[in-house]
Write a structure and sequence with these properties.
Blueprint: H1 5-16, H2 20-42, H3 45-62, H4 72-95, H5 124-129, H6 131-143, H7 146-157, H8 162-169, H9 173-195
Helix pairs in contact: 1-2, 2-3, 2-4, 3-4, 6-9, 7-9, 8-9
Length: about 210
């Protein structure tokens, strides 16, 4: 059964009263979605599984504090995201590189210009409907430097605000904007190289 607001709230109320079967139902409804989020952030299956386990432990410990001020789906996804980012921080600490490390490319003047500029052969909607597009985007995301990939995931996929993304990653809102721009430009270039019309290509110095 797909997650819905009314069913979620009913299950949460039962779980808050100690109904473990209701909690198990919540697990079944969100386990796959949480794993999907976790694997996009931490990238390793065993780490993603750990994030899901930690998330449900946190839900057990804190479900009585859930007051319905936000959607349950939003609440549980934020918990999962926080656990995923904490896991990344532990990884980075072992490598002595901070998660939100500032690079010398976090300036607008250092944002690379597109190399492949052309009109797309199809509309964005048509391209988005192609089965292969998802795989192309996933591969392109995997190729992004982690700091750009995380900003893109949190802003454009999870829908966090610039301020929320900055707080989650421990960087400034300005850095979030620049990293998001770099990620979007890179992904757009990948799609343009795949779906662009070579006959309409413009050389970068002509743009």
């Amino acid at each position: 059964m797909p997650p819905t607001v009314d069913v979620d709230l009913e299950l949460v109320k039962h779980a808050q009263r100690g109904d473990f079967a209701a909690f198990e139902s919540l697990v079944a409804r969100y386990e796959r979605r949480l794993f999907s989020l976790a694997i996009r952030i931490v990238r390793l299956q065993h780490d993603a599984e750990e994030v899901v386990q930690q998330t449900f432990l946190s839900v057990v410990e804190n479900i009585k504090s859930f007051r319905g001020e936000s959607l349950f789906s939003t609440w549980i996804m934020r918990i999962a995201m926080n656990h995923a980012l904490l896991l990344l921080r532990r990884r980075k600490k072992q490598k002595t590189v901070p998660l939100g490390s500032k690079g010398n490319d976090d300036r607008y003047e250092d944002v690379p210009r597109p190399e492949f500029i052309a009109q797309w052969r199809e509309t964005p909607a048509e391209i988005a409907s192609r089965r292969e597009t998802r795989k192309i985007l996933e591969d392109a995301l995997d190729d992004l430097d982690e700091k750009y990939r995380l900003v893109f995931l949190l802003r454009d996929i999870e829908g966090l605000s610039t301020a929320e993304t900055a707080e989650a990653l421990g960087i400034s809102p300005a850095n979030v904007k620049i990293r998001l721009l770099r990620a979007r430009l890179r992904l757009r270039e990948v799609l343009t190289r795949r779906f662009g019309d070579e006959a309409t290509r413009v050389m970068p110095h002509q743009h």
